Backbone:
């Protein structure tokens, strides 16, 4: 899939798309624009940034750049190991969990029509478990996502089943030479069967054996991430590809955010210490000022 085709997909599911010289931009949240494709490092000019701010309109832009010592550190989870197998997992404990998951779960590709019916509930459970809140995506939006994904041969859905129940699913897409794991969601009460380990291992092993796949990405490290989630990805064979994490605020709103934003967000972080949303908002303000992340940005949450 080309970058233009990926942009068309995100536009079809309700995102506003803006094209500039460096890349495409989409708004996963109101007034927040991110670069597309997400795995590609970009260096937009001041003119491009202003174009997105005005056309969006945008309060903030976020994009990855080639590592720069002067900027905040970010990272993308990647794996390009052509010999990927159980020994690529980083510990005996993780290998044991993965083997148990493979023994207890049935792994197979699934139709997006099936995922449309059964996937939203797992999305809600995962978001509540990791973020402490319900997802903003409605069932109607989820059906629209699955309907459009089903139209492209570069999108795939995989599932891990415990008996007849969907325990975990992955939505992946091949963009250029990157197989990008866009979503991985799971049912809380079935985590004891290790379906996430089994499914991710199977998908990675299968895709890395394909010549058209140069590498797999499990996305960028979030502005704040639970230690358990970070450990899960790295233990399954992903390495952190570093980049400079840029968050640029609209000049019209930046003075207010810098003046009042820290105080308001920090109070909310203290009040809700387990909520990743406010952790990410706090770190976004620091990233915009060019500061490095604090130790508190990584908090303990459920691993999957």
Residues:
């Amino acid at each position: 899939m080309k970058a233009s085709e990926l942009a068309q997909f995100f536009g079809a599911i309700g995102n506003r798309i803006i094209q500039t010289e460096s890349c495409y931009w989409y708004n996963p949240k109101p007034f927040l624009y991110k670069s597309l494709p997400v795995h590609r490092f970009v260096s937009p000019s001041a003119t491009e940034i202003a174009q997105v701010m005005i056309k969006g309109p945008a309060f903030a832009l976020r994009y990855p750049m080639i590592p720069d010592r002067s900027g905040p550190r970010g990272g993308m989870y990647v794996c390009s190991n052509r010999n990927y197998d159980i020994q690529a997992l980083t510990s005996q404990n993780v290998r044991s969990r993965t083997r148990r998951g493979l023994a207890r779960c049935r792994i197979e590709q699934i139709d997006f029509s099936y995922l449309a019916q059964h996937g939203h509930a797992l999305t809600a459970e995962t978001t509540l478990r990791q973020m402490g809140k319900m997802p903003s995506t409605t069932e109607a939006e989820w059906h629209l996502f699955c309907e459009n994904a089903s139209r492209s041969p570069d999108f795939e859905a995989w599932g891990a089943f415990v008996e007849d129940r969907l325990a975990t699913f992955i939505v992946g897409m091949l963009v250029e030479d990157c197989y990008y794991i866009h979503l991985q969601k799971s049912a809380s009460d079935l985590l004891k069967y290790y379906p996430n380990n089994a499914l991710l291992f199977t998908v990675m092993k299968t895709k890395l054996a394909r010549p058209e796949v140069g590498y797999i990405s499990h996305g960028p490290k979030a502005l704040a991430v639970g230690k358990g989630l970070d450990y899960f990805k790295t233990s399954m064979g992903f390495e952190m590809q570093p980049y400079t994490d840029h968050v640029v605020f609209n000049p019209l709103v930046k003075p207010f955010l810098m003046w009042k934003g820290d105080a308001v967000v920090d109070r909310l972080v203290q009040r809700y210490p387990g909520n990743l949303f406010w952790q990410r908002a706090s770190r976004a303000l620091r990233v915009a000022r060019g500061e490095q992340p604090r130790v508190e940005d990584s908090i303990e949450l459920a691993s999957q």
About this structure: The chain has nine helices and 13 strands.
